[in-house]
Amino acid sequence: DQQVKQNSPSLSVQEGRISILNCDYTNSMFDYFLWYKKYPAEGPTFLISISSIKDKNEDGRFTVFLNKSAKHLSLHIVPSQPGDSAVYFCAATGEGANNLFFGTGTRLTVIP
Amino acid sequence: DSGVTQTPKHLITATGQRVTLRCSPRSGDLSVYWYQQSLDQGLQFLIQYYNGEERAKGNILERFSAQQFPDLHSELNLSSLELGDSALYFCASSVSGRLNTGELFFGEGSRLTVL
Fold first, then answer.
1. How far apart are CA B33 and CA B93, in angstroms?
2. Residues of A in contact with B105 (CB under 8 A)
3. CB pairs A-B closer than 8 Å
4. Which of B40, B108, B93 is nearest to A10 (CA)?
5. Other CB atoms closer than 10 Å to residue B37's CB: what's the count?
């Protein structure tokens, strides 16, 4: 059973525009949510995270929004750049947990 | 470069065979995690070791086993291979196991193809 879901396998946006990647989760025990970025032939790398006590976390061009009541989070990238083209994985975990639950990923393509 | 090294990068083998995937964690990291990414699937957690001891188990098949050695490198053994075992296997390491801070560093993965 997939506890973290990314329903959009792919997304294309024009350079300079906003990219919005969505993620849904089912487990209300999750306390932390993370986004990882993966380039081809590389492992995933951590991008940004948010605690369940917050509804927004911003780091430069990247902002993650959390809607706990809807069990939904989103990653906004503004402005999008061609170098942002990658697969983005949403992940979730609980306090003290030994595992990250990952979504299936969304492939973002930023068109120059 | 994450500092996590995985070998081999690519491996092609036949059904019924046995393979070993190797992982060297970042210097100083005590925790090693193994993940499996099959086609169109997210990263599925297999198993975690901390300083040589098994700490957590995910959806790891009985045909699979792992261990972490005194020098902290880890091996994932896959036996009686089936076509469905074809996947990208990632190793990741962490110094404290605090996953909520993004303190999980992945290797480049080992791509296993079972024919």
1. 6
2. 43, 45
3. 68
4. B40
5. 21
The residue among B29, B43, B90 with the most chain A CBs within 10 A of its CB, best to mutate, is B43
Of A47, A98, A104, the CB nearest to B56: A98
The amino acid at B96 = S
The amino acid at A81:
Q
Using a CB-CB cut-off of 8 Å, the residues of chain A touching B33 are 99
Ordered per-residue pLDDT tens for chain B, 115 residues: 889 999 999 999 999 999 999 999 999 999 999 999 988 788 899 999 999 999 999 989 999 999 999 999 999 999 999 999 999 999 999 987 777 777 889 999 999 999 9
Token duo for residue A29 = 């025990």
Residue with tokens 């990414």, as numbered in its chain = B37
